[in-house]
Write a structure and sequence with these properties.
Oligomer: single chain
Radius of gyration: 23 Å
Helix content: 25-40%
Shape: globular
Number of helices: 15
Mean pLDDT: 95
Structural class: alpha/beta
Distance between the termini: 75 Å
Low-confidence stretches: none
């Protein structure tokens, strides 16, 4: 095969490429850092001529041009597998919707789907000498998505890091229909650089004390997991491993501090395994051409069987709130959508099945509402419409700045007592009174 000739034959303009999209189509926009840019700009120009175009993607890191057209709800829907702040703001405009699914299920969903993509368009790294376009830090579900797509358009970005993997981290030119040379924008940054707050540091200290040498780490998105990572980088821990859904800046800090070797991992020994990565340029530079890091599909990284095969697996994730029954919501504020199910439950379940494994759900005990009032994130019951991400039967450790408690196996009265013990002191009496009303408090409970 003459890959250079194939490249030339398939090379086209973004304007020409988006003509493949018709009214009623399902169009996949890749994932996170792989969301198209040049193609999106031309798609926005074409979209007003079309109706009922259904886009799929997730974790948007910039506002797509298709969101900016006049009356987008008349022409499109945006269907997100996991929402960022950009996507949830678009909900009120009537065209952005969440597609609830465990993140690990996405590859199978695409392979079994009755509504495969008509067109898939996304950013990739430049073609290598063997004819492969690397997905960058977004292997995720991309291969499965491409398998069912009728038309595949890649947008080449010379700034996209080439992320090495074990499998399903690239697409071959023979499977690509059109190639667009993009404008090579810098890969968008997502947090990771802000210093930890006092609350985040307090939570991190409780968790780090529970991590043994040789542990295998999974860190979720957000300030608290990053704070834990920063503290690990400064600790005396050694021979840590990585097997995570999302690769974040904290892993770079831990690795550069010499804490990560992966030598105690029973599978993928010496490799830092991840489904996608997003953070600062420091992260993208670290992942680029790094043989220690392994970009893999999400049905591998988030598979409970893979997670449980790793001894001393440590899973650390954020949540929005928790109730006195131990139900964890990490997706919404009542009916107001915030994020998504992601892989949190997969890692909660997998970590507990791991020999010596632990999962931690962490949050600040309070938040300040728009009117300035301070409210508890620990509530008697979840607010009406709030989503149960982790059921009360699955939660292992729960952590706030006021302490850490192991909720596994506790009776309802024990669980209520434990959760209230790490609530903000100003709300504990009120929570006890509510627990009594719900008959999950006994006379001998600690007050």
């Amino acid at each position: 095969m003459d890959f250079k000739k194939m490249f030339e034959d398939k090379l086209t303009t973004a304007e020409e490429a988006v003509k493949a999209v018709k009214s009623g189509d399902w169009v996949d926009y890749g994932w996170c850092t792989g969301t198209p840019v040049a193609l999106d700009a031309e798609m926005a120009k074409r979209l007003p001529e079309l109706t009922d175009v259904n886009f799929r993607g997730g974790i948007l890191m910039w506002v797509p041009e298709i969101f900016k057209i006049a009356e987008p709800a008349k022409h499109m829907t945006w269907n997100s597998w996991h929402m960022s702040g950009i996507e949830r703001k678009a909900i009120a405009q009537g065209f952005s919707f969440y597609a609830p699914i465990r993140y690990s299920e996405l590859p199978r969903y695409y392979r079994d789907s009755k509504t495969p993509s008509t067109v898939a368009m996304f950013q990739v790294a430049p073609m290598d000498e063997h004819g492969f376009f690397n997905f960058g830090p977004s292997a995720s579900h991309m291969t499965a998505m491409c398998e069912g797509a009728k038309t595949i358009i890649v947008e080449v970005n010379e700034n996209m890091p080439r992320c090495l993997g074990g499998f399903e981290e690239s697409i071959h030119i023979s499977k690509v229909d059109m190639i667009v040379q993009g404008d090579n924008p810098a890969i968008a940054s997502m947090g990771g650089g802000a210093p930890a707050t006092e609350v985040e540091e307090a939570v991190a200290k409780y968790i780090v004390n529970e991590i043994p040498d040789g542990a295998c780490l999974q860190l979720g998105i957000g300030g608290m997991p990053n704070a834990v990572g920063s503290l690990i980088a400064q600790s005396d821990l050694k021979d840590l491993g990585v097997h995570t859904e999302m690769y974040v800046d904290a892993f770079v800090d831990i690795a550069k501090a010499g804490k990560i070797t992966g030598l105690r991992k029973s599978i993928d020994k010496g490799r830092q395994v991840y489904a996608f990565g997003a953070g600062t340029q420091k992260l993208y530079d670290y992942l680029n051409e790094n043989p220690e890091c392994m970009s893999a599909p999400v049905n591998y990284t988030n598979d409970i069987r893979q997670i449980s095969a790793l001894d001393n697996f440590i899973s650390i994730n954020n949540a929005v709130d928790i109730d006195l029954f131990g139900q964890v919501n990490a997706e919404s504020a009542g009916t107001k959508h915030i994020s998504g199910a992601g892989g949190q439950l997969d890692f909660v379940l997998g970590a507990y099945l791991s020999n010596g494994g632990k999962s931690f759900i962490c949050m600040s005990s309070t938040f300040t509402a728009k009117d300035g009032t301070v409210k508890s994130r620990i509530t008697p019951t979840l607010n009406n419409g709030s989503i149960v991400t982790d059921t009360r039967a699955n939660v292992h450790y729960f952590v706030t700045e006021h302490g850490i408690v192991n909720l596994k196996g506790l009776s309802t009265w024990q669980k209520a007592e434990a959760i209230i013990s790490v609530a903000h002191p100003d709300f504990r009496d009120e929570l006890i009174a509510e627990a009594e009303k719900m008959n999950i408090w006994k006379a001998s409970n600690k007050r």
